Protein: F-box domain-containing protein
Amino acid sequence: MGQYWEITAPNLRQSLPVKDGFKLGEMLFDGTPSRLVPFLVTPLRASNLCPPKNITYAEQLEVKAYTKRPHSGDCVQRPTFPMMRLPVEAHYLIFESLDLVSMLYLGLTNQYFWNLFKEFFPQFIKRSVTSCLGAWAGTNVIVVGDYADDLPDGLLTDAISKEMEEGIKDGSEMRPATLYDLSSIRYQTCVPIDQIFDERLPNLLDLGKKNTKDDGRGPRDIEDIVSLRLTDFLQDEQLWVLRNLSTYEYVRAEAIALKPEYIHGPFLDYIGFGEVIMSRASWSSDPSCAMGYDRDITRGVWAGDRFDIVPLRCLADGNDKQKWIDISDKVVRKIADIWDSEFGSNWREDFPKYLDRLSQKQGQKRELAFKKYLRQK
Structure:
């Protein structure tokens, strides 16, 4: 059966879901590590935490809206079908209660509701982004195996240690709990932000286009409104680094990127900061990891350390007297050893092809799941 693993922030009582497999030799190579990156990235671009300024409102379109958003005391004329007779405040409450798909469907019914969609959609995305970006920055992170019966010194708080001693129910009896047990059973599973920007928004855009009128009566600005990127919420910085706040070491994005064109701010295609952390922060008492490389990877030197991902200039911005150490070259050598043992000497060309094929299969599964979800609505 092999050993399963969890990416967890124990002091926050949170974990991240994997993309494809639960074994370290699956997780490390299936794109799962990239899910860790947004949770460590900071800072946000403040101007994008409110609705975009380039939204086109109803009165600017050729298609006449049912109403404009009323000011106090305005007399508003609406069509007579029942939902439009509700007060504007009720419409707001309705939008606040909807998921993205339902919100879009309602927005596509007429120009009045489309304007409300344009108001509520950025707020919905804002809540999703702010709940993820940087949420794990500065807290202890570990990739822990289910065979781990010891942990790095200083990782656990007294409360977590006590919870582990109290144990969990195993059948009809109680047994001591491991950190893996707590993470997989009791901790909150965070919604990875790639599900929003790589899955939900593209699906939403396709859905909106399919449901837009062919005669031009539908919203013309749907692509402008829905096509957001995660990098839209970050500072305009060309150089980003992963910092280990526990050891004062850092890794440069341009050093680990397979090609310069694979760098998109702090996000790197194929191999990035997430792979660096997972290859150095995995921990178990058992060396089994379902991969060719097994030298010290299950006793990671970074296991339980604190991290963040920041612009390079932040290394000089702080008041820390401790000197930061660039270990990019050391990390690159280890990455090369691990990927070479798994994919051979031509891994720099073969691994992107492998991950592209895997991502395509994952995308097909997501598309089927989304279609099933729509049939149930």
The longest strand covers residues 5-9. DSSP finds 13 helices and 13 strands in the chain. The CA atoms of residues 6 and 144 lie 5 Å apart.
